[in-house]
Every structure is written in structure tokens, then in C-alpha cells.
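Side project, low priority. Logging it here so it doesn't get lost.
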Amino acid sequence: MLAPMPVFASDQDVYALIGRVLREMCDDEQLSLDCQRADTIVQYRYDHPEATITVDLRADGRPQVFLGECELVPEVVMSMAADTAHCFFLGQVNLTVALARGQVHANGPAWKILKLVPLVKPFFPRYRALLEGVGRGDLVGV
């Protein structure tokens, strides 16, 4: 049996979809306020393809998203395959289970990591809508 095709062909595909939905969070007044309560810098490190997204959620400034390498030092680092991140943003991956199975690796204060989990749920329908809006509805059922 053939393995399924990866969702993302390059880091630019990751940035165009996952990066974009995270940047939309920064532009949404209520979501950005909610996310600032995390008061941290989180970095998502993806592989297959390799991509890095850093999100500055410190309480003393407006949330910002950096695509690729940046100067910020993350307090929380979440590492996973880009396809796992895609499925997570579709609401198909339970983070606790993925951590237990080794599909996601997290470094940083556990309480900060747990604080981030409920903040991303509003992104699930936005990510799905983004995929459909850019003509990638084929990725919704992955």
C-alpha cells in the first residue's frame, strides 16, 4: 500500500496555511487579547517539510507571528511533523494523546503548554475555512 502524499510540499506551503491562520489570530481583536493571557513565546518546529513558526504572546505587547528563523527565544517549543500540525488545526488530533504517543514533543513549563491548548480551538473552523477558501478543500478530509 502506498503512503499518503504529504499535505505540504514545502516550508512555504506551511507558512501559507498554518502561518496565515496564526497571523489572522493577531489581527482578531478578541483572539489576540485571549492569546496574550498565555504570556509566553511559543515556537512550532515542523518537519517533513522543515518549517519554524514563532508566536510572541507576551502580555506586554500585541501578538506577532514570525515565519522562519527569528531572534526571539521561545519559552515553549512544540515539535511535530507538519502533517500532524495540519490535522491538529483541523481538530483531528488530541494534543494530550499525541504527546503520549510521541507524535508531538513539547519543551517548556507544563502549565504554559496546557494554557495554550484551549487558546487554539477557535482556529479550527478558521483553518478549515482557509483551506476551502484557497481551493484546498481536498485537504479538509485528510
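Brief comment: Residues 11-27 form the longest helix (17 residues).
Revisit when time allows.
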